[in-house]
Design goal:
The complex is a heterotrimer of chains A (368), B (191) and C (158). By secondary structure, chain A is of the alpha+beta class. Chain A is 47% helix and 14% strand. Chain A has a 4-stranded antiparallel beta sheet with strand order 1-2-3-4. Chain A has a 3-stranded antiparallel beta sheet with strand order 7-8-9. Chain A has a two-stranded antiparallel sheet with strand order 5-6. The longest helix of chain A is centred in the first third of the chain and has 29 residues. Chain A is globular. The model of chain A has no long low-confidence stretch (mean pLDDT 90). The longest helix of chain C is centred in the first third of the chain and has 12 residues. Chain C is globular. At the A-C interface, helix 3, helix 8, strand 7, strand 8 and strand 9 of A face strand 3 and helix 3 of C.
Chain lengths: 368, 191, 158
């Protein structure tokens, strides 16, 4: 459809660069984006409604399928919300296990994002190949622990499903030792690459004030210059025990969003090393923890963690019954898209694709 | 390869195989299945993983993921088909030229999977378009998808392809998706 | 962060008594909330955002709730402060009834992050937000006539 000299293009829901079934209705003046309206819901799987008809524990496998790159951290966010609702405590070793798994998930997510982002810029195949090579190594660890590559269903209210074996810890240590050199190599390949710089620097700027108002979280927020990381701001789990830096950008452009993630991976490696070195002995599940037949007292709780994509939270309302009365997921991928139009206006359509890639969305979580 | 042996070795030159054009076509077709680059949900990530170095779908001639349905032979329905997405899935299928095949990858595409009770979830993509191979799993491992592809290749070599009629495109209704019964029958006949 | 009772008293002092009511939460989470009078909710929200001590600059989560027994719908906002690093302050707004005219004030002009989330609440609960810049269905298609997250969805009564 055209309005005078403007051209309206529908990008998606089937489009190679929309990272799933996301759709944008873009109005173009020549090649320049003058209007961009996202259209959601093509993967709306009714997670929140289904959760109201199954038990608290029954929703745990569904959280895997929200942001399907990061099952382990989704599990943690949900477990945390239920633990707040019931007042359940978590053994020390389980907190360590959660941190180890969440940081591995962060590595997994960020490395794949880097691969996909570069793919969007036209680096067809190669960076993504390297990223997926590392992903496979982490997935092997997850699989040997939980039995599934992607859908781990691992955290429980009051701990974790299973303990980490000595073999697993040795393998994880080896992976962490090798991940640093991989990052060096990856950066050598790309940092300073003229095309990457031209396509990302000054593109898709998200100003600091807008980032806060639009509720951006995670690397998108930090790239805009707000050093707000729930691992430090909330200090949930045992994160206060682990010193680490929160990388943040100054320009809020696509380049900063990419760099923040690369730096975050290095900090995650630091956290992982500390956690593996100081992992305490003990149970990984509170012996008094109630899993089946859980009936929390009437009330509500909101629990949130710093997922790889931003703040993933669960808001649970209980009426005293075995199923949640209301189950709400706070999806970072969706809310980070609030300012998508503001970031894309004035850029070309090809840049809009890269900007979308740099926000890092997963449609399972956007639409739920 | 199931090319027929020469009927009589004495009358033919060494290194020559006799076969029918149909068999040769099917054989060639089965080893150059180009999938549509089309991801729906979680399974799409495993589909991408199958095309990466570790699992390497290129070994079976299917690494050419085409972004346009006009250039694709195979629709891998990799994830939950929601009612909002259903018309687009059918339209993409209709836009693919014959001969074309469909793999339903994962529990959601087969039956709606864990989400089958949802108000916006299609209980199986075979209610909309014909499916040749079902690959169970949630999500299936990349090896499982490769096995599904090999099963499809087997079918292609065994069956005469019958052109697929257009599948009716469902409409959005005020309460539900309006789906006409699909005209498709069996995927082909063994010969 | 200052206790919720004090926040309520400050809101009452400024917007008249009864502008905010404390809703206790008996669960171990102890996340109590403030019920705002709906005609003043937008002004109170702006006050919470701009107040130097509270500076609740970040609206994290917007959630709808259906209470058929009480005969109203409810919207819950979880507010945090990125500047002062505290929170959550939870505010709730109720509609008058559950009928087709169920409405609540939009806070999307106070916190931009409520924009898409209020659209979602409109889509799934059927709450009309006055003053919302772009109120359309978010997840379901435009012609869809039902509100799936209401408790009576699929039970005959639309």
């Amino acid at each position: 459809m055209s309005f005078g000299d403007l051209l309206e293009v529908s990008v998606g829901p089937h489009h190679p660069s929309t990272h799933g079934v996301f759709r944008m209705r873009v109005t173009l003046d020549g090649e320049t984006v003058v209007r961009l309206k996202p259209v959601f819901g093509y993967l709306h799987r009714n997670h929140e409604k289904i959760a109201e008809s199954i038990s608290y524990l029954g929703s745990m496998p569904f959280t895997d399928r929200l942001d399907y790159m990061n099952a382990m951290s989704n599990n943690w966010a949900y477990a945390l919300a239920v633990e707040k609702l019931t007042g359940q405590s978590v053994p020390e070793r389980a907190e360590y296990v959660r941190i180890i798994l969440a940081e591995l998930t962060r590595l997994l997510n960020h490395v794949c994002l880097a691969g996909f982002l570069l793919q969007d810029m036209g680096a067809s195949g190669t960076p993504l190949m390297y990223a997926f090579r590392e992903r496979e190594k982490i997935l092997d660890l997850f699989e040997s622990l939980s039995g599934s590559r992607m859908m781990c269903n691992f955290q429980r209210f009051g701990g974790c499903r299973q303990d980490l074996s000595a073999d697993w810890l040795r393998e994880a240590g080896r992976l962490i030792d090798r991940f640093g050199p991989f990052l060096d190599e990856f950066e050598l390949l790309l940092a300073g690459n003229e095309i990457v710089l031209a396509r990302t620097q000054g593109v898709g700027v998200l100003p600091r004030a807008l980032a806060i108002s639009a509720g951006a979280t995670g690397p998108v927020l930090r790239a805009s210059g707000v050093a707000y990381d729930l691992r430090q701001a909330d200090g949930y789990g045992l994160y206060p025990r682990f010193p680490f830096r929160v990388p943040y950008g100054t320009h809020g452009d696509t380049y900063d969003r990419y760099r923040v993630r690369v730096l975050e991976m290095r900090e995650s490696l630091g956290i992982l090393r500390q956690a593996l070195a100081t992992l305490p002995e003990g149970p990984v599940l509170d012996p008094k923890a109630r899993l089946r037949g859980l009936r929390p007292k009437a009330g509500e709780a909101y629990g949130r963690i710093e997922g790889p994509k931003g703040e993933i939270g669960f808001y649970l309302v209980s009426d005293g019954g075995p199923n949640p009365y209301r189950y709400r997921v706070r999806p970072p991928s969706l809310i980070n898209l609030t300012a998508l139009e503001d970031m894309c206006l004035g850029h070309t359509l090809a840049d809009a694709v890269v900007i979308l890639g740099s926000i890092d969305i997963v449609l399972g979580e956007v639409d739920r | 390869m199931d090319l027929a042996s020469p009927p009589d070795a004495s009358g033919t030159l060494p290194g020559v195989l006799c076969t029918t054009v149909e068999t040769l076509t099917r054989w060639g077709r089965s080893h150059s299945v180009w999938p549509l680059q089309f991801g729906l949900a979680c399974c799409a990530i495993e589909m991408i993983a199958a095309s990466m170095a570790r699992f390497d779908i290129a070994r079976f001639g299917s690494e050419v993921f085409r972004p346009s349905p006009r250039q694709a032979d195979l629709l891998i329905v990799s994830g939950t088909v929601t009612k909002k997405m259903a018309p687009m899935v059918v339209r993409l299928w209709n836009q693919m030229p014959d001969p074309k095949y469909c793999i339903a990858m994962g529990a959601c595409a087969i039956s709606g999977g864990p989400f089958h009770t949802g108000y916006n979830v299609v209980p199986g993509v075979d209610t909309l378009i014909p499916v040749d191979v079902y690959v169970p799993g949630c999500p299936p491992r990349p090896e499982a998808l490769l096995h599904g592809l090999l099963t499809l290749q087997e079918q292609i070599r065994r069956r005469t392809f019958v052109p697929r009629p257009e599948s009716p495109i469902p409409d959005y209704g005020p309460r539900d998706l309006i789906v006409s019964p699909p005209p498709h029958g069996a995927a082909g006949t063994d010969s | 962060m200052e206790p919720l009772e004090r926040i309520r008293d400050r809101i009452d002092a400024r917007f008249g008594s009864g502008a905010a009511t404390l809703v206790p939460n008996p669960s171990p989470s102890a996340q109590h909330s403030l019920l705002l009078r709906s005609d003043q909710a937008a002004a109170i929200a702006a006050f919470l955002r701009d107040d130097a001590e509270l500076c609740l600059d970040y609206c994290s989560n917007v959630s709808g709730l259906d209470w058929p027994a009480a005969g109203h719908l409810e919207v819950v906002y979880h507010l945090y402060s990125m500047t002062c690093r505290h929170g959550p302050v939870i505010i709730r707004v109720r509609t008058a009834d559950r009928g087709p005219g169920a409405a609540a004030p939009s806070l999307a002009l106070v916190w931009r992050s409520a924009e898409l989330q209020e659209r979602e609440v409109f889509d799934l609960f059927g709450i009309t937000f006055w003053g919302h810049p772009d109120l359309r269905r978010l997840l379901m298609w435009d012609d869809y006539a039902e509100y799936p997250l209401r408790k009576d969805f699929g039970k005959g009564a639309a």
